[in-house]
Amino acid sequence: MGLLTRDHIRVVNVLITVFVSLGSFTYGYCSAIISTTLGQPQFYEYLHLATYGPGLSHTNALTGAMNGLFQGGGLFGSLAVGPIADKFSRRGSIAIAAGICLIGGALQTGTVNVAMFLVARFITVCLRDRHDDAYRAIEYLHGDPSDPQQSLAKREYEAVRKQIELDCVKGNGSYKELFTNPANRKRVSIGFLLLFGAQCTATIVIANYGIILYTGLGYTAPTTLAFTAGWVSVAVAGNTITSLFVDRVGRVRFLLIGFCGCLLALVMEMWLLAVYQNSTNKAGQAAAVSFLYIHVGFYSVCVDATTYIYCTEIFPSHLRARGSSVSISGLFFATVIFTCAAPQAFGDIGWKYYIIFAVLTVMMIIIMWFYFPETKGLSLEEINALFGEDVALQAAQFSEEPDSTIAVDRIPKKEVAGITQHKETAPDV
Predict the structure, then answer these.
(1) 177 in the same domain as 121
(2) SS3 content of the chain, % helix, strand, coil (to 5)
(3) Is residue 3 a contact partner of residue 160, using CB atoms and an 8 Å limit?
(4) The pTM is what?
(5) Residue 426 — very low, low, confident or very high, per pLDDT cuts 50/70/90?
(6) Where do the TM regions start and end (predicted)?
(7) How far apart are CA 387 and CA 396, in angstroms?
(8) Last residue of a domain, one of 80, 112, 127
(9) Which of 51, 87, 187, 347 has its CA 20 to 30 A from that of 241?
(10) Cα torsion for 104, 107, 109, 110, to the nearest 10°?
(11) Can you tell me whether residue 419 is helix, strand or coil?
């Protein structure tokens, strides 16, 4: 929220956000398309992979490696993007990542054997003091054509600048600062746990191996492909709903609703698979498919986008790139484990593999309830107060005069390295 209200949101803000979010489509498409790829008999014939008999175990190991290496590339890239973004700028890091994805996608398309495909999957996701430029960027994003003084942009810039100065007094934005400062350690643990825990709902396994799940329920192509397309469509619609309600409901509350909903769907899915997977009961099998849809509905509406919002905004400005990258590495760390193990696990223990995800989801619900602070309605600078840190200037205490003067005389102040700041007590969470 910060200083901005709905009236101050400009078309350019929306367009930039939409453009940047195309990066998620780059990852999401490549992650999801493997499910339908594994459902194509021609894929196995082309790469000379057995679909039954003695060679099936080898095929399961390779399909696990295909997904595992893809997520491993994401793990490498998520850890690399922090220093890259700080060195080459956010735009620069996006350009570098886009180039790598282009190369990886081309190699996957032109694959002639399993080894080439595995390498291509990995490559696909492997990847100051400019105050005048900073103000111009804020004015471009938040400027008001009806206000020649650009008072809103000036107040927003002043809040950000002073908070960054205050943060830099306390550290240099290194990875060491993430783990030596108690408040930052809490941020990192929350961010990493959240992104790791989101994958403990089994969503990534369902996304990557949906065709196998539908086939196990007795369905065949093209029905299995239609189910997968519908599942992905629900996910897209769910993320759209997130954008409408996440600021009203609150981040942590939204996450709790989503995790509880995913847990309920998982439990019902396990029961239905245990009873109907090897039966001829069409109603029971259809119900099992429906709960996969209910599962992704809860995940996409309440969990998916919310995890990225939350793990990004809890970090101070000078640590946001590195903190977010470490947090998102938790996502890929989890997906490497779960996607590599899934083919063999489904072959050996079947529906019981979901028990692991159900237990982990229960643990995540408990951790979030007691450990995660709510950030609803707070500016990025004010969120520092939730972690017991200093806030340079609060948005609510800005002067409403049409110039850049900020009324801070009423705020209890102290001087640290020449920077005006005050200690803010954390609100109830």
Answers:
(1) no
(2) 75, 0, 25
(3) no
(4) 0.67
(5) very low
(6) 12-34, 94-120, 190-212, 224-246, 253-274, 286-311, 323-345, 351-372
(7) 19
(8) 127
(9) 187
(10) 180
(11) strand
Shared domain check, 278 and 198: yes
Whether 203 has a pLDDT exceeding 60, the answer reads: yes
Other Cβ atoms closer than 10 A to 429: 11
Burial degree of 4 (CB within 10 A; 0-12, 13-18, 19+): middle
pLDDT in tens, 309-364: 999 889 887 788 788 888 988 988 898 889 888 888 888 888 899 999 999 999 99
DSSP code string of 84-115: HHHHHHHHHHHHHHHHHHHHHHHHHHT--SHH
Residues 243, 164, single domain; the answer is: yes
Question: Is residue 7 one of the residues assigned to a domain?
Answer: no
**198, 239, 283, 342, 344 from 203: Cα distances, Å:** 8, 14, 23, 12, 17
Does 6 reside within a domain?
A: no
Q: Does 188 lie in the same domain as 76?
A: no
The boundaries of the domain holding residue 39 are 19-127
CATH code, domain carrying 429: 1.20.1250.20
User: Would you state the pLDDT for residue 379?
Assistant: 76
For position 238, what pLDDT does the model report?
A: 92
Name the H helices within 110-202: 114-124, 131-142, 151-170, 175-180, 182-199
Do 191 and 104 share a structural domain?
A: no
